[in-house]
TrEMBL record:
PANTHER family: D-2-HYDROXYGLUTARATE DEHYDROGENASE, MITOCHONDRIAL. GO terms for cellular component: mitochondrion. This is FAD-binding PCMH-type domain-containing protein. It comes from the Eukaryota. One of its GO terms (molecular function) is oxidoreductase activity. Keywords: Membrane, Oxidoreductase, Transmembrane, Transmembrane helix. The keyword Transmembrane applies.
Length: 244
């Protein structure tokens, strides 16, 4: 769309063209006619003003496009499609005027695993089993498929480990160890998101909070509810409906 100020200027030019200037002429010819220079002057000023505004609108689009190019991370390992409000900024020239528009869509870029992160080993798995117990440390490929795939089946990771803590202390111990070992972590709730934010990109450790689904307290006076991180919103709504 053309800038609002540009549209306002166009309306002003149109108004002058249709109605003429409301004030009496400053100069006239000997025959009594209005000087042509006095009529042309408002058009010239309006044209210059419109040109400057359109020029700055165009440069704004160029800056957005350059910023988007700088944000792209190029690599060799995996293509990830992500949502970006700056993606596909367009600049169209019509009759010498820059028309600005913004397109919301997906931009596919190549990303690669950060070499600063460590890779999982058997010693790490044994440490997590000591915290959670063997049954809450999942390495089965079939069970990992669900954790590695998003709800829309659009994104898929390659994590080899799924952890299922039951308390805040266990989560704290897991993250403390992962921070020490520099292991990448992805927290996951119900994995029902539509933008792929809850699935790993590479081999991150998935920390599932699905077992932490208790409602701790509810204050009817203040309306404050305290619950664990894995609570399902539908269950919370049902609880609140029963509380009135």
């Amino acid at each position: 769309m053309v800038n609002r100020n540009c549209r306002a200027t166009l309306r002003l030019v149109t108004l002058i063209n249709r109605q003429g200037h409301p004030h009496p002429p400053l100069s006239s010819s000997p025959s009594g006619h209005i000087s042509h220079s006095y009529i042309i002057l408002p058009f010239s000023i309006a044209f210059v003003f419109l040109t400057v505004l359109c020029f700055y609108s165009g440069t704004g689009i160029d800056a957005c496009w350059k910023q988007l190019q700088r944000n792209n991370v190029h690599g060799e390992h995996k293509i990830v499609s992500f949502f970006s409000p700056l993606a596909s900024s367009l600049k169209t020239r019509q009759w010498g005027v820059n028309i600005q528009s913004r397109c919301y869509g997906s931009a596919s870029v190549l990303v690669q695993r950060n070499p600063k992160f460590s890779k999982l080993n058997d010693e790490d798995v044994r440490y997590f089993e000591g915290i959670l117990g063997a049954k809450n440390v999942i390495q089965d490929d079939e069970k990992l498929i669900t954790a590695n795939t998003d709800w829309m089946r659009k994104y898929k990771g390659s994590s080899k480990l799924l952890l299922q803590p039951r308390t805040t202390d266990q989560v704290s111990e897991i993250l403390k160890y992962c921070n020490f070992r520099c292991l990448a972590v992805v927290p996951q709730g119900g994995n029902t998101g539509l933008v792929g934010g809850s699935v790993p990109v590479f081999d991150e450790v998935v920390v599932s909070l699905s077992a932490m689904s208790k409602i701790i307290s509810f204050d009817k006076v203040s309306g404050i509810l305290v619950c664990e991180a894995g609570c399902i919103l539908e269950n919370i709504i049902s609880f609140l409906d029963n509380e009135g």
